[in-house]
Write a structure and sequence with these properties.
115 residues, alpha+beta, 3-stranded mixed sheet, 3 strands
């Protein structure tokens, strides 16, 4: 693949990741209302954990809008099946037609060290 084609693919992937992150920001997060019943003894802890996860999701999505990926890798297995991965330093979203991995995931750790 020529350099121009790789550059176009990467820019399209960045746009797809940023768009998916933007859409994920519009999603409502987890709430206690999702449970059929709540143990009042643990409700406060569960609510705090949900707030923290929702805050982390929002923070990750905001970062993905600004920095969709930190690396592009083309990997192949022992049968020479090739796969293009985009690695992110924060959480992941489900972009259309792009394989996105967190830097901390097993495949994401194939990327060189991130400062």
């Amino acid at each position: 693949m020529k350099l121009r084609g790789i550059a176009r693919e990467a820019l399209d992937a960045f746009a797809s990741i940023a768009k998916a992150a933007e859409a994920n920001l519009d999603r409502s997060g987890m709430t206690l209302g999702a449970f059929a019943s709540i143990n009042q003894a643990t409700a406060e802890t569960i609510a705090r954990d949900m707030r923290e996860r929702n805050d982390q999701r929002v923070s990750d999505c905001q970062k993905l809008r600004r920095e969709p990926a930190i690396a592009r890798l083309v990997v192949s297995d022992e049968d020479n099946n090739r796969e293009t991965l985009y690695i992110t330093s924060s959480g992941t979203v489900d972009p259309v037609s792009v394989r996105l991995c967190s830097y901390m995931s097993p495949k994401g750790q194939l990327a060189p060290p991130f400062p």
